[in-house]
Fold this sequence. Notes:
Elements: H1 2-24, E1 28-30, H2 31-41, H3 43-48, E2 52-56, E3 63-65, H4 66-84, E4 91-98, E5 102-109, H5 118-130, E6 135-141, E7 145-153, H6 170-180, H7 185-192, H8 196-210, H9 215-224
Parallel strand pairs: 2-4
Antiparallel strand pairs: 1-3, 4-5, 5-7, 6-7
Helix pairs in contact: 1-4, 4-5, 6-7, 6-8, 6-9, 7-8
Amino acid sequence: MAARQTAADLAASALIDLRRAAREDPADSDARRVFEDLTAELGPIRRYSDVRLSLRPPGTDRPIPSETVYAARSVTLTAVLDAFAQDTVRRVHVGWGLSDDALTVTVRDDGTNTRVDTGTAARRLHRIAAAAGGEAARDTEPEWGTTVTAAFPLDPAEAAAPSPLDSLAPRELDVLTGLARGLSNRAVAEELHIGETTVKFHVRNILKKLDVSSRGQAAALARDAGLTPPRQP
């Protein structure tokens, strides 16, 4: 029991330290590196207790907001401490999963001690997770142990910026392709089999839609946007 208390005290100190770090580090953090730090923070529990502690890091790397990752660490440490408060626990498993849209924390123990105030523990975990926009749940089954799960939503990868050419009609794109190749209005008209007046009409609309004042600027935008002029035979 003394070993458990020593481990719990050391882990509680680590929890205070990581909360302080969360306030000082506003940048994104790499999930796997942070999990490695967490593993080191849980080292005292491994050294001073006979409980078997297994840890499974996230399978992929992804920079995630520090507020989120520190909340995940806090939930993990708090859940582990709750598990070690039960004198019947012999095994604790910690796992982090990282997908495109969420960081998931799982802490599972094999304790059968039903004297723990599960409501208070669940509310404490929920408050920690909610501070970073996440959710946490604590499920205890007599004789089967306790499982804590927490999910922290992640912003989806930023969508590609819209192309300035998206507003152009298909025929306007044909005309702009000619401009990007340095063709004159007459040459564009001949190539597209339309009248030169029609080409001028399209050019005026292109300049207006792209918010530029010259054919050269329009052509430069076309090249920057990846519009590749077809090669002539």
